[in-house]
Amino acid sequence: MREGYMTGKRQRCPVHPGTILRDDVLPALGMSVSGAAGEMKVSRQTLHRLMRGQTAVTPEMAVRLGKFCGNGAGIWLRMQQAHDLWHAENQLRNEISTIKSHRLAA
Question: Per residue in 67-97, pLDDT tens?
Fold first, then answer.
């Protein structure tokens, strides 16, 4: 039987938020990386690393992305968290399966 934390687990990795920025947001806005980086007050290299999935969305970057896209910082952090959690669960799957689960009294 699978542990509770694994139920409903996605088989595929959630998309990195940088990929969404690269493939969906910037093309929809008709913006270049340089233009977007300038508006967000980050370097072009910083934005490129994010869009390649080489760096994670930090709280600071989430604030910038949320303002830039008009959808708030939380969505960018949640996307990054889902991506990171999927990788952690898969990387630790065998080790975690040996840990006993405990239930707290209600």
Answer: 999 999 999 999 999 999 999 999 999 999 9
Long-range pairs, 49-53, Cβ under 8 A, ≥24: 50/17, 50/18, 50/21, 51/18, 51/19, 51/21, 51/22, 52/18, 52/22, 53/16, 53/18, 53/19
Quote the number of domains for the chain.
Answer: 1
Task: Yes or no: say if 89 and 6 are a contact pair by the CB < 8 Å rule.
Answer: yes
Inside any domain, residue 36? yes
User: Could you tell me the pTM of the whole model?
Assistant: 0.83
Residue spans of alpha helices (H) in the chain: 17-20, 26-29, 33-40, 44-51, 59-69, 73-91, 93-96
For residue 85, give its domain range. Answer: 14-96
What CATH number is given to the structural domain containing 67?
Answer: 1.10.260.40
Kindly state whether residue 6 falls inside one of the protein's structural domains.
no
